[in-house]
Structure formats: structure tokens, C-alpha cells
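User: Sequence in, structure out. Go.
Assistant: Echoing your sequence, followed by the C-alpha cells.
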Amino acid sequence: MNPIKVFISLFLLCVFSSVESQEKNHFDISNVWVADLKNGNYKNPILHADYSDPDVIRVGEDYYMTSSSFNCIPGLPILHSKDLINWELINHALPKQTPLDVFDKPQHGNGVWAPCIRYHNKEFYIYYPDPDYGIYMVKTKDPKGVWSRPILVKEGKGLIDPSPLWDDDGKVYLAFAFAGSRAGIKSLLAICTLNSDGTFANNDEVIVIDGHFDESTIEGPKLYKYKGYYYIFAPAGGVPTGWQTVLRSKNIWGPYEKRKVMDQGKTAINGPHQGAWVQTQSGEDWFFHFQDKGAYGRIVHLQPMKWVNNWPIIGVDNDGDGIGEPVLNYKKPNVGKMYGIKTPKESDEFNTNTLGLQWQWHANKQVNWGFPSKLGYFTMYCRPIPKEATNLFDVGNLLLQKFPAEEFIATTKMTFNARFDDEQTGLLIMGLDYSYLKVKRSSGSLYVSLVTCKDADKKGIETESDPVKLNTNTYYLQVKVTSGGICNFFYSEDGINFNSMGTSFKSREGKWIGAKVGFLALRKGMINDAGNVLIDWFRITK
């Protein structure tokens, strides 16, 4: 045999193996973003993913984080860390959102806004707001286990950003803010009392700050008590360009002094605010916050913090004015031990009987949307496109996950068992604008094309490239995301030779969330035996 042909054959076999047969363990740690620099330092963001409005607590030697999830279900993600840098997604506290008849359909921008996680009397509590209904609470003794059903603690339209405090004398308080879009008032922080078990808020609220004068859009209060002072950590100035303010008082009801403790300064980290203060077991102080990064969502940063004259300074105060600036690289927190690398899962081989925690739907999941199995794939069924849908913005059965890094490649292997013409599936980049590789059955054959929709939230109309016929119902779809959220799409029939499809697409954030990547399975009208797609695997690589 010709040596050159032998070499080419072996090379192609290696390439095929790298795409088709990579071991699952290879994807236990992210290939695209690891904050731990493995030299005693870390880089920000610690999570280059949309964990908006992060809140964090320490319980013994363990740290737990939750964040906003809005209309994405399951909601209220629970992340765990041993060192504040390396995080794993271990659970969701909210399997479905209530009221069920409302959230069984997409409710973009609604649902779970900024939550607060606390530990009291050997139980974990999360207080979260739904701006249309009020402030809810869920709790558990095991954060990896089942959380209680939501209890409406304080009813009221426009109540947001709750933060409870169990005081030394047994009294319980709740700080919260107001969403102007629902309440008709904003830039105010209030405190009321709770009953002893934290399940009911009294109507004795008191305004503790009016931010209209110099703390515009103050919100997101986190209530703490430290060295005899009550502290309220609260972001102000708006998400893209704001700062972190701290209020303090010897009396829970005030009056409160206030001070700006962190802003962007001369850094590139815009709007550094809205987060959580955590003290390590060694006595160090740290602060979590997000940065709004457009299509990438609100990504999570960790800043050093120190106390000066009973005021916190967050970040690094290089000019000595008492206002810190964010850091991009810093020494890792001292937690007494060194721990290994952990990252939230991104890739999925779909080999287990539970769906990976990285996946969320755009509405409460219905049982006939899809099933995991130990057969080696996740099955999605082609569900009817809602009659009211102009485009995918009105579709709930979208299986999606967060963008994990500035740049990445997402590749998937799928087998489409279409039973009827006009059934479709594909690989989707979803946001206010979206684009996806559509695989659709037409005249008994499968065709692939690139569909794009601008201003989907404003009933934008889809455009589509010329379709290309596929010669197999098992194929590979791929999207390459580069800096700025630029997406290019590819397809392959053998996993080796990938063909470009359409033109570049600039991804865009969703309603209060980052852009997401994942799958759809749709059809026109109801049938008693819809087609399905078997998703063999989904892999995130550089």
C-alpha cells in the first residue's frame, strides 16, 4: 500500500477518535475556563458563566453559592466549593416554578430574581423574589437533597432582593428592595420583621435609605451583623456602570451611615457590585460580585476585602481613598488546605439516567419533552410549535446551558428519527437574537440549514440559508464561539469533515440572562407518535 495513503488513513482515524471517542473523564474539568492558576493564585472571573446576582455562605469548611435563574428551569442553582475558587454545580433548589399555570410557558425576565442563601439552626434557607408575586422561601437540611416547596413569605408586587438576618436576641429581620417596573417605586431599601421560623414577614417595614439623591438604583441589599454594627451591602448606580455601597448602623432601623467601598476605577471590570461577603475559617474576608458581560451574561468575580475603622474596602485600594478597585489576578484565599481543580460540568455524554445539572429549559419541563436513559443518549421529542409563537422566543422546550467562556467550541452527535415531514431539531444559540443549525425532514429526506432571527423578543422573523441534503440521519453539529460572542456553525456526516454553514452570527444576551447553547425539537401540530432526536453527546472544547 502507498505509504502516503497509510499515513493519511491513520491521521484521519486519530482525528475521528478525538471527536467521536474521547473519554468522558476528559470533560470532568472545563477545557475552556479554569480560574485556579495552580500556582497559589487565581484569575477573575472565577466563573465565566451567567451566575447572576451571586450569593455565598460558609458552613464549616464548605462554601455554597446560589444565583438568579429567572425563567430557566430547574432554578436556583446550588454550587459548592472548598476554597472559593473551584466550584461544582451540585443541585437546583427549585425543580419547577409556581404558579405552574404561569411558568409552564416561557416567562422571559420573570421568575427567580436575586436570591439570598443562609444557614440557621442546622438548616439551609434560600429567600428569593418573584417580582410579580412577592418573596418566597425554600429550605433543606441537605443542600444536595430535596428542598422544600416554596412558601410565600411576603406577598407584594415589585418586592425584590430579600436578605434575612437572625439576630442575637432571637429577633428575625428581612431587608428588601423594590422593582420600579412592578412596584412603581425604586431606589429604596426597606427592613421588616419576620416570625421566629422565617416563614412570615410582618407588615412593619421601614425605609432605611432613599437612594434618589446620590445612590441611584440602589438595590440588592445583603444584611449582616458584625462587631455590634448592622451592615447592608447594596449595589447602586445600575448594572453596567454601578458601584458597591455599604451602610452601617448600631440600630437595625437606622439611621444608617453609608460609604462607597468599590467601583470600577481604572479597571476594565464594569459595574462591580451585587454579591456577598464571606469570611473564611482563617479569618480572611472576601466579596463575590458579578460583571455584566453582554452575551456572556453576568459572570462571577471574587475580590479580597479588608476592614478599616469598621468599614469594608473591597478589591485593592491603590490610591488610598477608601474605595477599592477589582483585581484580575490575586492570591488564593487561605482556607487552611489546598484543594484540587473543580469546575461546573459543561460537556455531557448522556450515559446516565439523570440529565446533567448544567441543562435548563425555558419553562417548567413537561414529561413528554424528553428523557434521559442509560442507553447512551438523551431523547428529545418533537413537540408542537405553540400557536401563539412567532419564533423560538415563545417556545419552552429548549434544552440549553450557559456560555462557559469567552471562546469555546460546542460539538454534538445526534440521530434524528423524524417520522413526518416538517419535524425539526438542531443546535441553537439562544438570546434576544438567535441562530441555529436546523435539521428538518422535507419530502422524506433530511436537510440542514442555518436559521437566524433578530429581535426575537419583538416578534422578529426568521431567515434561513439554502438547505443542504443530508445522506444520513446520524450527523454532527458544531458551533465555534470566538471573542465578542461571534458564532460560526458547521455540520458533518462523519465527524471528520466539517462543512461551514451560513455566515457569522453575533450572539446576544437574553432577558436578564446570558446567551445559551443547546437543543430544540419541534413540529407543526399534534400527532400521536412524534419523531425524536437521540443526542449521543455534547462536548465543549477549545
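User: And one key feature?
Assistant: The chain has three helices and 37 strands.
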